[in-house]
Amino acid sequence: MDAPSPAVSLPSRGMLVAVVGPSGAGKDTLIDAVRRHFEGSDLIRIVRRVITRPAEAGGEDHLPVTEEEFARLRDSGAFACHWQAHGLFYGIPAAARASVDEGALVIANGSRSALPHFAAAFPRLKVLNITARPEVLAERLAARGRESRDEILRRLDRSSLEVTGDFDVETIDNSGSLEEAEKAIIGFFQGLDIDAGIEEADRGDFASDERMAEIKARYRVPGAAD
Ligand SMILES: Nc1ncnc2c1ncn2[C@@H]1O[C@H](COP(=O)(O)OP(=O)(O)O)[C@@H](O)[C@H]1O
Ligand SMILES: O=P(O)(O)OC[C@H]1O[C@H](OP(=O)(O)OP(=O)(O)O)[C@H](O)[C@@H]1O
């Protein structure tokens, strides 16, 4: 009989990257660029958020729900974490935590104010802070046309909100060309060393180098340096 496979503690292997930053900084646009670049990869998954915002509002492809539906989902434990901002409710489906537990690199459009909730729900959390200069934000929000002038002003009021707290934060300034920022965000994901945890914690548990290579291949970010 074959020896049993060594135990691989998958729950600590995956990672959640919360993309945060002020309204208009380019979070959705850059997440879309990441989606296109890593298309077909089983390893990188992008969360579809549940939001009490109508589908026709435009912007990201979220799952639109009413406030009643949101409350029912929240109370039944459907969210890994949830928060409220701009008069809207946002939820990260519990499936995101399941994907992280399977070893995936999961990307979610987050909120700076909700980072403590993210940290509680996801043991391996990285924060990617997308920024842009205030005048650039104002221009982009007006051009995006999703919110009224008053809503835009309220959103810009929040835009000084810094990322505070003890988080592992990387910042990308998207005040310049989109091409430049896309390069930076793709480089960020390619550079993520999600093998590191495996090396440190489990090397001793693996029966052979082949088995180690097999496991490492599973967690590898496409395009990352070996
Ligand atoms: N580098 C850039 N240059 C020009 N326009 C941009 C750039 N990045 C994003 N945009 C535009 O700015 C607007 C806001 O971007 P969006 O991705 O919706 O921001 P966020 O999700 O952070 O609110 C969108 O209309 C988008 O097309
Ligand atoms: O606490 P903050 O960091 O200010 O973020 C508040 C919320 O605003 C953003 O969502 P939304 O998609 O509604 O807005 P945006 O695309 O304009 O950022 C972001 O994803 C958060 O859910």
Q: Please identify which CATH superfamily of the domain at 10-40 and 104-219 we are dealing with.
A: P-loop containing nucleotide triphosphate hydrolases
Helix content class: 25-40%
**Order of secondary-structure elements:** EHEEEHEEHEHEHHEHHH
Q: Which molecules are bound in this entry?
A: adenosine-5'-diphosphate, 1-O-pyrophosphono-5-O-phosphono-alpha-D-ribofuranose
**Percentage of residues in strands:** 15-25%
Please give the alpha-carbon distance between the first and last residues: 34 Å
Mean pLDDT: 82
Pick out the low-confidence regions: 1-12, 195-208, 219-226
Order of strands in the sheet with the most strands?
Answer: 2-7-1-8-9
Quickly give the structural class: alpha/beta
**What is the count of β-strands?**
9
User: Whole-number radius of gyration?
Assistant: 19 Å
Kindly describe this structure.
By secondary structure, the chain is of the alpha/beta class. It has a domain at 10-40 and 104-219: 3-Layer(aba) Sandwich (Rossmann fold), CATH 3.40.50. Helix content is 39%, strand content 19%. The chain is built from 9 helices and 9 strands. The protein has helices at 27-37, 67-75, 94-102, 115-121, 134-144, 149-157, 178-191, 196-202, 209-219, and strands spanning 15-20, 44-46, 50-51, 63-64, 79-85, 88-93, 105-109, 125-131, 169-173. A 5-stranded parallel beta sheet has the order 2-7-1-8-9, sandwiched between helices. It has a 4-stranded mixed beta sheet with strand order 4-3-6-5. Strand 5 (79-85) and strand 6 (88-93) form a beta hairpin. The longest helix is centred in the C-terminal third of the chain and has 14 residues, at 178-191. The model is unreliable at 1-12, 195-208 and 219-226 (pLDDT under 50). Bound molecules: adenosine-5'-diphosphate (ADP) and 1-O-pyrophosphono-5-O-phosphono-alpha-D-ribofuranose. Adenosine-5'-diphosphate binds at residues 21, 23-29, 59, 140, 143-144, 174, 177-178, 181. Adenosine-5'-diphosphate binds next to helix 1, helix 5 and helix 7.
